[in-house]
Amino acid sequence: KESQEREKDKADRATSDQVLDQRTRMILYQIINRGVVSEVHGAISTGKEANVYGAVAYPDTDGPPVQRAIKVYKTAILSFKDRERYITGEHRFKSGADKGNSRKMVKLWAEKEFRNLRRIYAAGIACPEPIQLKLHVLVMGFLGDKKGWAYPRLRDANLPAEEADKIWRHLYIQLLGIMRRMYQVCRLVHADLSEYNILYNKNQLYIIDVSQSVEHDHPRSLEFLRMDIKNTGDFFRRQGVDTLLDRTVYDFITSSEGPVEEPALSEAIEQLYASRSAAASDETAVAQQEVDNEVFRNQYIPQTLEQVYDIEKEAQKIGEGEGNQLVYRNLLADKVVLPDKAGEEQSSDSQSDDGAALDSDEDSD
Ligand code: ADP
Ligand code: MG
């Protein structure tokens, strides 16, 4: 029978995974004892930095079983070294990262993913529901069907041929809205956004893999945002979508004025298309678009008012003040305080208390 085959397949995958270390198994037992999940299945994904496992929880009541996903960060890795740039300058991680202690590092990344997920989920953006965090193990909602098959990544999405063009464009516009909402409401830049970290189902995009996402005021957030815009724009262009200029998208996302909710977000994007076609004749448009994107990608993005003044002073000194192309974000309108921030820090502190017993073990890495 089909389901038997699948069980066998799952078991095979589980055994071909590298064996979980003792510490991780202890955490999984605790999670099972608390009823957060009842069974842990085989790996959905084995990555360089983390494995993701499928899991099932049987509710107390007679309700149907609930699918969960468990992301386990790997401790024995060097690849976290190049993640330093995301943490340095992040005020939520003022103490920085202790690169010598990989156990602390993975705990930090899991914590970061959990917090970011909470913020994104609270903003009503489609993403896995954050359920529980324990050291380097994160339990979240499962994005997939009732049978336990995860939704495909956007890169593997199988769109019906007759409607593909229409859907790709719809998804592009949906994603720009998500990016703006994430920036304006969650005050986060994803920083690794691509067709690999977006899942797709029924005209809906789901944002995943947010451990490296940074605050909007991180010293390099705008650089990361520009990279996200390039990577996602490149992907949708390859699907034949008529995309907006990187700079137009960037301004759309960072401008403090404008809507932050659907359907107004999509309408605002349609407006951008409308004003674009009014301005440019399509003969030159394609070539010009490439040039514009190239220029934008190489521009310096000042992140603070001091940097703006410094650059203008420098430019005046050299005498090329008029031609300098700077990308400004809305630097003055940026003093928004998130009402939920204080609460968030508090509740996540109590979260990590809960792992204190395991956490106090000496690190043997
Ligand atoms: P990595 O750091 O390894 O890239 P990701 O968070 O991107 O980790 O997850 C890896 C893969 O696991 C995803 O591409 C997706 O296929 C699957 N996955 C991750 N989270 C979930 C989830 N909540 N539900 C279903 N599948 C998931
Ligand atoms: Mg990923």
Structure description:
The protein has 365 residues and is α+β, with helices and mostly antiparallel strands. It folds into two domains: 2-141, Phosphorylase Kinase, domain 1 (2-Layer Sandwich); 154-298, Transferase(Phosphotransferase), domain 1 (Orthogonal Bundle). It is built from twelve helices and nine strands. It has helices at residues 2-16, 22-33, 84-87, 102-122, 164-184, 221-238, 246-254, 264-279, 282-298, 305-318, 341-353, 356-359, and strands at residues 39-46, 50-57, 66-73, 130-134, 137-141, 188-189, 198-201, 204-207, 214-215. The strands form three sheets. The protein has a five-stranded antiparallel beta sheet, with helices on both faces. It has a two-stranded antiparallel ribbon with strand order 6-9. The termini are far apart. The model is unreliable at 11-17 and 332-365 (pLDDT under 50). The structure holds adenosine-5'-diphosphate (ADP) and magnesium ion (MG).
